[in-house]
């Protein structure tokens, strides 16, 4: 079984928004992670001057399935080196340094994102992909690049997918969707105004909604039926082009795509071969 981690960073991110009973537990775990992983919920509640019920509520606040899930993630953290921070570039930085820094940032972002992805959320998304008549995908700006990549991958395996840069066209298509369809929304911040507005309309239409966003509380994570999280680490100020966060979102799309291909192997391979032959014939 693959090792999971990220428990300590997840606690740090949500700590300020927790009620006092859960905040006491979060602080205790961060101060005593080695001890926390050996405790029962009751022992942790008592040690943090809180309660076992608050331990269960904390896990729910973290979007985790159980206290055991949290302990496994913390145990994984203890076996790793310190979490990464983005390496910024400087004026007239040597190209060799930029190669090293960008590679480090990208690999680290993907590695951290793995810790936030829950297999249950991926499995839910796969069920919806298989059962949806139409799939609407929306993102704006840098997230629009991810949405476009998502559409072209899904189309290759025969999924009826739509992505439009124009929010009005997106809403027009969404108007003909219902409970048997799926709308996928992509926003790293989870607060992009245009994306949230369309998401609210999808909810009114009772369309199933999937969000791809950073871990933590946001308008998107509160609204969608299912959220798949990437690492919430912010990029260096000088790199406003969302380089590493874009890679993390693409990584999630690739996981969804390859999981779908694996689960529906023969029919998806046939679809890919069919589209490949058409493109090759068009180039002749």
Automatic annotation (TrEMBL):
Residues annotated as domain HTH rpiR-type: 5-81
One record GO biological process: carbohydrate derivative metabolic process
UniProt keyword list: DNA-binding, Transcription, Transcription regulation
Entries under InterPro entries matching the protein: Homeodomain-like_sf (IPR009057), HTH_RpiR (IPR000281), RpiR-like (IPR047640), RpiR-like_SIS (IPR035472), SIS_dom (IPR001347), SIS_dom_sf (IPR046348), WH-like_DNA-bd_sf (IPR036388)
All copies of domain SIS, residue ranges: 125-266
One MF annotation (Gene Ontology) recorded for this entry: DNA binding
Family annotation (Pfam families): HTH_6 (PF01418), SIS (PF01380)
Keyword Phosphoprotein appears in the UniProt entry: no
Keyword DNA-binding: yes
Protein name, as recorded: Putative HTH-type transcriptional regulator YbbH
Organism per entry: Marinococcus halophilus
Lineage of source species: Bacteria, Bacillati, Bacillota, Bacilli, Bacillales
Name of encoding gene: ybbH
